[in-house]
Amino acid sequence: MKLSSVFSDVTGKTCTSVTDSVMDGNTAPEYLASLCTHWRLNSTQDEIAQAVEGKFRERHKFMLRAIRRRMHNLTDEIQHIDDEISRRM
Q1: DSSP class of residue 60?
Q2: Rounded-to-10 torsion of CA 73, 56, 40, 68
């Protein structure tokens, strides 16, 4: 998957829905491209389909899940720090 070539924010809602679908076992490029309907996308459905095309094995899905957990933990930690800063101001 070359998501950064078609998405400006790989942690955004649209890209997240694509990676969630891959983790759920939906790996057909045309299907994944059909999830990308945000009006701000500059890429065509064909470009998106090419970017998500690939062979997804269990190890790839495992790594996507691990990365997603890591991102979630970092987001939680940032929120915790922001809350503490606000409290101390």
Answers
A1: H
A2: 0
